Amino acid sequence: MSARKGICCVDMDYSVIKPIETPIPADRQGARRHYGVHPYFTRRPFNVVRRYIERYTSAGDTVLDPFGGSGVTAIEAYLAGRNAIHNDLNPLANFIAQGIVNLEQGTVRDLKTALGEVRASCQKRVEAIHTENPSFIDEKFKPLLPPNIRLPRTSDVEFYFDLFTPRQLISLALIKQAIGQLEDASARNAMLVAWSATLAKLNKTFLSAEGRAASRGGSSIFSIYRYKVAKKPVELPPWQTFEERAQNIIAAKVEIDRIVTFQIANGAWNGGFSVYQNDIDALASKLRNKTDYIFTDPPYGGHISYLDLSTLWNNWLGELPDQEACDQELIVGGEKDHSRGTVHTAAKRQHSRVFADAQEGKVDVRRVSALEYCLF
Ligand SMILES: C[S@@+](CC[C@H](N)C(=O)[O-])C[C@H]1O[C@@H](n2cnc3c(N)ncnc32)[C@H](O)[C@@H]1O
């Protein structure tokens, strides 16, 4: 269907493609480093997604994930030389997905230089603050902090700042300020992803499991899906925690460079990547007849409010979604008490609209994978 410059696209006859009928074991152990650079909710195993994309599309086809999350579908499609379209209502999801794809820009040396500059600019101050352990935030740091907004009702604490100790807030602010001063835009964005991943570990919802290293702990945001302040919060050393996340980013760049170099050497790789931040209703009309294949993972049970749970990041990144976006979020359960069926019917209707040639409710399941288990 689609034909992009430099790529020969074969029109797929979906009626002759054999469905994938045997289970594909999820490759979590060997998960690619680049997906590990930042946590997100309910991430799909990349190797399963990849198999579906390869089975149902050719190089140059357009692959859409309308509920893209942290971007596994679109990133796999992009790295496989497809034209990937990623969409999510949640700014944090798009920040992570775009941040990983952007690692393709610049060089590993650029990232190492950027980390060196951040280190020179703030490591000593951050370590000194950690040792001093102040009991309040000095006025001079306040302009560096995000707004102290009210948290969702299910949180253990009322306000955003209550999620942190003073030294955590000040350290995060100092590191972010140093990153903001980097001149190289792609290295700055990469370091910001590392900083944002650090935020997941430097707050009072973080706790360690007994018998494990403190840094191997996790946040209640990802385990019980709410801001529960740990009875015995673990305070990791801020600079070291950031430095480890930054080293992860550098390792992820090495890996992405290797994949792209391999693809280019083996054919006319020309992956494309675009990001939308739309409710699926709006997205469907924009993408009418522009998509060859959808692979998606719509919101499901467990009452996960992705937007509320992402406030920790969206507030400090200056990307808090407005009320309209919050009202559009599809949550199974939640305040609107949507059933699983309601959410999936909404998703199905919009997928029919993307494939304008398909009558409503009669989307070819081979063109919408993953949904086939839950919708049809
Ligand atoms: C199950 S998660 C997807 C996770 C993804 N498969 C991954 O591997 O990271 C569902 C996503 O749907 C998004 N979402 C919820 N309501 C939406 C809406 N109305 N329009 C677009 N995205 C929405 C959520 O923000 C969430 O990221």
Structure description:
By secondary structure, the protein is α/β, with parallel strands linked by helices. The protein folds into two domains: 43-104 and 255-373, Rossmann fold (3-Layer(aba) Sandwich); 108-253, no CATH class. It is 41% helix and 6% strand. The protein contains 13 helices and seven strands. A five-stranded parallel sheet has the order 5-2-1-6-7, with helices on one face. Helix 2 (72-79) links the parallel strand 1 (62-65) and strand 2 (83-87). Helix 1 crosses helix 2 (72-79), helix 4 runs antiparallel to helix 5 (166-180) and helix 5 packs antiparallel against helix 6 (185-199). The two termini are 25 Å apart. Mean pLDDT is 87; it is low at 1-9 and 371-376. It binds S-adenosylmethionine. Residues 40, 42-44, 67, 69-70, 72, 88-90, 93, 279-280, 297, 299, 306, 328-330 line the site of S-adenosylmethionine. S-adenosylmethionine is lined by residues 40, 42-44, 67, 69-70, 72, 88-90, 93, 279-280, 297, 299, 306, 328-330.
* CATH classification class of the largest domain: Alpha Beta
**Main pleated-sheet profile:** 5 strands, parallel
Rg estimate, integer Å: 22 Å
Shape descriptor: globular
Question: Would you kindly provide a brief summary of this structure?
Answer:
With 376 residues, the protein is α/β, with parallel strands linked by helices.
How are the secondary structure elements laid out?
Layout: H1 46-56, E1 62-65, H2 72-79, E2 83-87, H3 91-102, H4 108-132, H5 166-180, H6 185-199, E3 206-207, E4 218-219, H7 220-223, H8 238-265, E5 272-276, H9 280-286, E6 293-295, H10 306-309, H11 311-316, H12 323-328, H13 340-354, E7 368-369
Parallel strand pairs: 1-2, 1-6, 2-5, 6-7
Antiparallel strand pairs: 3-4
Helix pairs in contact: 1-2, 3-6, 4-5, 4-6, 4-8, 5-6, 6-8, 9-13
The structure holds S-adenosylmethionine (SAM).
